[in-house]
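Good morning,

Attaching, inline, the backbone tokens for the sequence recovery test we're adding to the shared suite. The designed sequence is right after.
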């Protein structure tokens, strides 16, 4: 059994059944013996981006309460509390000046604190050491 923490884009693509998410990743996350977690910070990130630019960022056309229902239907678990052990991870986290996203850094610390594989296509995150990851490349979808 493996335990995974989804990056926000991975969560969106999984729920949308998007072709951006490779089928191999979808299958791994769907395996019955694996446990998949969603961070409160992903829902917060979606809400923040909608406030900033509601027309450009509406990945699922659903309010957060509906997103929670969609997540519940997948039987994903929530990480709603930021563990104190993750705070120490921030102090010791590698610094990559080209990667400035605080929510990504929070997800990395949570994954480390809970010993989860972080599922992300973000190549800037792939550079971090001491983080268990399920790395993948975003599939390019021609329209």
């Amino acid at each position: 059994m493996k335990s995974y923490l989804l990056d926000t884009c991975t969560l969106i693509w999984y729920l949308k059944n998007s072709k951006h998410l490779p089928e191999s990743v979808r299958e791994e996350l769907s395996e019955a013996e694996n446990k998949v977690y969603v961070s409160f910070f992903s829902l917060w990130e979606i809400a923040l981006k909608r406030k900033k630019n509601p027309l450009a960022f509406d990945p699922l056309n659903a309010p957060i309460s509906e997103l929670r229902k969609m997540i519940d239907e997948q039987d994903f678990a929530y990480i709603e509390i930021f563990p104190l052990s993750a705070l120490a991870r921030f102090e010791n986290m590698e610094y990559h000046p080209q990667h400035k996203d605080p929510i990504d850094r929070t997800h990395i610390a949570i994954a480390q604190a809970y010993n989860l594989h972080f599922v992300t296509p973000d190549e800037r995150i792939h550079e971090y050491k001491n983080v268990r990851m399920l790395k993948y490349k975003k599939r390019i979808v021609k329209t």
